[in-house]
Write a structure and sequence with these properties.
Shape: globular
Strand content: 15-25%
Strand order of the largest sheet: 3-2-5-4
Radius of gyration: 17 Å
Number of strands: 8
């Protein structure tokens, strides 16, 4: 969904920081900013993240505030692909925000997706499913929800939500003197 939305020149994907190791093919600054844990923790203490979280009890992830602010200043819409706890943290920021919860079509499809990847150990999948249960219960905290059952339909719905939000933001601006 994110890749399709980012085909629109108005939209960019936020590049997060993480303490996990780079996977094959990932590029520093394009996919993530890879940081050592002490550096990540220093940046938390300095307030340099819009949001941050330790995911699945292992690795830190966070959205660098300055990176996002620079893109917004350039007139871009920035998509943050973040966990529920991160979305909660962004509520108090002064930046424009519209939070969309992307939900699976069913619990069975979510479980099937996780298991078919064959990239995680069974205990890791169980941790992810336990987290998913908690996150699904938080869907009402978001401004909108989109079911990811069909990529074309879900992208169209996200574009409609985005366009409506951008029109509302434009109409909310005070007239020029």
């Amino acid at each position: 969904l994110r890749q399709r939305l980012c085909q629109d020149p108005r939209i960019v994907r936020s590049v997060s920081c993480t303490t996990r190791a780079a996977r094959p093919g990932e590029v520093e600054g394009r996919d993530y900013f890879f940081l050592a844990p002490p550096e990540f923790e220093r940046r938390i203490a300095a307030g340099e993240f819009l949001e941050h979280a330790k995911v699945f009890g292992r690795d830190w992830y966070g959205t660098p505030r300055a990176w996002v602010e620079a893109r917004i200043a350039d007139g871009k819409v920035v998509i943050l692909e973040i966990e529920v706890q991160g979305a909660r943290q962004t509520r108090g920021t002064a930046l424009p925000r519209f939070a969309v919860f992307v939900r699976p079509p069913s619990w069975e499809s979510l479980e099937g997706r996780l298991r078919s990847r064959r990239s995680d150990a069974p205990e890791a999948i169980e941790r992810r499913l336990a987290t998913a249960r908690l996150e699904l219960a938080a869907a009402d905290e978001f401004d909108a929800a989109v079911v990811n059952d069909n990529v074309d339909r879900a992208v169209a719905e996200l574009r409609t939500l985005l366009d409506a939000r951008l029109r509302t933001a434009e109409n909310d601006r005070p007239p020029c003197p």
